[in-house]
Structures are given as C-alpha cells and as structure tokens.
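So, can you check these tokens?
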Amino acid sequence: MNNTRKHQKSIEMENQTKIDRISNLPWDVLDIILVHLPLREAARTSVLSSKWRYKWTGLSQFVFDDKCIHSSMVDKAARWMEIMKIINKVQSSHSGPIEKFKLAAYCCPNQSDFDQWIAFLTKKGIKELIIQDFSFIKRFKLPSCVFCCPKLSCLELFGCIFKLPAFFKGFDCLKSLKLSQVFIVSDTLESLICNCPALERLTLLNIDHLAFVRIHNPNLKYLKLDSKFEDICFGYNPLLVSVDIRMIPMYGWTIPWRPEQGKVCNLIRVLGSFGGINRLCLYGQFLEVSFLYLKLCFILLIYFGQMLRINKII
C-alpha cells in the first residue's frame, strides 16, 4: 500500500514538473519579462513551442538597435530590410497597445515603409516615440499622423522636417521633447512649445533654420539648447530650474526685429528672466557677453564700495 502511494506521489510530482508555468503566466507579466530582453532575443522565444510562436509580436515596446541586427551587416539599406522583416510580422499579428518605439540602429529607411510603420504606431496609442540614429539621403518628412497621438509623453526626433499641420491642437501629455538635426522655423518651434502644457524637458540640438528662439511654457523645468541661433527670449517659465545654452552665431543671417528684443543676445535681458533657477550653463557667444557683463558688475561693486566708505567717513 505504501509503495502504491509513493508511486502515485512520484507520478504527481513528475506531472507538476512538466507543467509549463511560464507560458501560463498572465500576458502583462510575460510582456514585462520580454521587453527587458533585446528584441532579437525576444523573437527567438518563438522556437520554444507553438504557444510562443507569436508571443513576441504582441509586445508593448519595440526597440530597434544594433542588437537586432547581425554585427557583420554594414549596408544601411540591408539593415533596414532586416528591421522591416520584424515590422511586417508585428503588423500582421499584433494585438493590443504599443507604448514605446525606439529606432537607434544605423540604417537607411525607405520613406513609404517608415511612414506606414509610424501610422501603425499612432493607431496603437503610442506614448514614447524615439528616433535617434539612421541615415536618409535628405531630411525626411515627419508624417502628419504623429500629431494625432493624444497619449504621447516622450518625443525624440532626428533628421526630419518639422511642420505643424493645420489641425494640430497640441500634445496635452507630452513631458519630454528632444529635437536633433531637425529643420524647424522659429515660429513653429514657439507654437509647439506653447501647445505642450505638460512639457518639463526640452532639448534642442543642431537645429536648422532657427534664427530666433522664444521659450514660453509655465511647466518647463529643464532646458538644453545647443545650436545656431541669433537671439533668445524667455517668457513666463516659473518652474525653470536648469538651463544649459550653447550659442553658435549664424553669420550672414539677417533676422527680423521683434518688440521683446533689445540688442541681439542681450544677456542681461536673458538673465533677468530667471527667478528660481538652480543651474545655469552658458557657452559659445554668450561667454563673450558674459565677460563684459561680469566686468561691468565688478566695476559697479568697486564704485558702490567706495561710496559706502565715503559715507562712513562723513
């Protein structure tokens, strides 16, 4: 009798060890596990069993970087074709939302394929759209569907032409905006910043055609600007605590005068806009003006010091 019970227990234990507990986990738990793997490794889980064949295509985050592509592949067009193989599988079988997409693999996208994929993402409720590293023959046009993403909280764009469509009402949830090597005119940038009421971080790097910069956003906390421009003006930014500006002069440019401008690059006007700022870094042409400003302050301190001494004697 004891032997029979022992045998039954051993069978039960053996059956329990054969249960695929990972496959039976809730999808939200599996999604958390898989998104922490490089996308190439997540795709390899398709060989585990029939249950896993398409699990990876339903991820909520897709990061296309150099880990997705074999290191021996150097042709930029061929690298994009490898990415498109993954994209096509995702588009054909994905269900549910996609919260994050990041492109950080040096490749050369086809414009129509790229537009189609971006349009697919906008229908999936994208929250983080990050395009960091790729190669186009010329600046690519940002699809207008990007401006129809009500849940977008993080937007990073590289090497595109940025124009606001007529229907654009703003990004209500956008907290972080980074533009790098982007073509955008001054008025468009000003309108974009003003129409992002939740914006906290703004980074502008090597912007094309940016003559005048006006920063006005009551929720902005962190600003980094490293680009060619002729003048900058700060509006109402009460929460701004960190400012990092490197100014590269635009030789040969003539910019229209605006009422808020005093002299071009009026450092005193800029510094007067900062109330509760904790960190301020100025580089480039700002330094030339900074030395004059500091020299003036030093002369004034000496003058007032002498006046106080005279008053004490009297």
In short: Helices lie at 2-18, 27-35, 39-44, 76-93, 111-122, 186-194, 267-271, 285-313. The chain has one domain: 25-283.
